[in-house]
Amino acid sequence: MQQIVVGLVEQHLQGKQAHWNAVGHNFQDLHLQLDQVVDDAREAADTIAERVRALATCPDGRTDTVAATTTLPGFPEGEQSASAVVDLVTARLRATVETLRTHPDQVDNEDPSAADLLHAIIDSLEKHAWMVSAENRSVGNRSPWAFSSPASRAARTRGR
Asked: Which residues sit opposite 144 in a β-bridge?
């Protein structure tokens, strides 16, 4: 669960970096949309950290811990075009979801309540990834960031 806390804290921080430094076409709408991503990531980190505390463990969200253990790639410095921010944020949302997806089955065996929380957070982040990625899409062009259902992912994995 510690890696999940770290991933969500980093998602929050990178979302804020994107929020502050996006420029260009559709800036205002993206700026506001990123506020929602940031708020949801921060709330999710708090929810999981509090669940960790309820289970008598200590989460570690200190900046040095987050920087040393995050699995998200670093966010570029300085101004970024709104279009680039869409792709950067979508990639990070997807990476955070993939981190969360590696844990629910393991967590479900030990703490079904925590697994339920993870599923709700995954749903929220996937919705944000869809909505953010739509900024760079055109009609008929499926997003490369589109998520597939767990069943279709499992079928592809079995087919390898």
From this structure: none
DSSP class per residue in 65-99: HHHHH--SPPPPSS-EEHHHHHHHHHHHHHHHHHH
Please report the pLDDT score of residue 142 as a whole number.
66
Rounded CA-CA distance 130/145 in Å is 8
Mean pLDDT value of segment 82-101: 95
Write down the residue that tokens 């998602």 correspond to: 11
- Cα–Cα dist 37/125, whole Å: 8
Residues in the chain, overall count: 160
Grouping H, G, I as helix, E, B as strand and the rest as coil, residue 23 is: strand
**Tens of pLDDT, residues 8-30:** 999 999 999 999 999 999 999 99
* Three-class secondary structure of residue 160 per DSSP: coil
- Please report, as a single letter, which amino acid is at residue 41: A
% helix / strand / coil in the chain, to the nearest 5?
Answer: 70, 0, 25
> In which residue are the tokens 């300085």 written?
78
For residues 122-140, average pLDDT: 91
Rg (CA), the chain: 16
